[in-house]
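Let's practice the habit of predicting before peeking. Look at the sequence and jot down your guess about where helices and strands might fall. Then scroll down.
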Amino acid sequence: MSQLPRIPLTGDERVLSDFECAELLGIARESLLSMRRRGEGPPYCRVSKGIVRYLRSQVIEWLASRVEGGGIDEGSGE
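Done guessing? Here is the structure:
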């Protein structure tokens, strides 16, 4: 049996449902589910069949890793 990665949890770690995660990201729940199926969404924990939860800190970290650009319009030639 393979070892699962250990996730360090603090007493104040917030666990999110898919509804809460989608709300945090500002997207529809269906979009989050679609991203998860394609392996493109934030990391998640499968609690049991049909029950998935997200660690808020990992969702924020995932979102921060996707930041692009710096406010410069790349098409302006400047």
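How did you do? The two ends are 55 Å apart (CA to CA).
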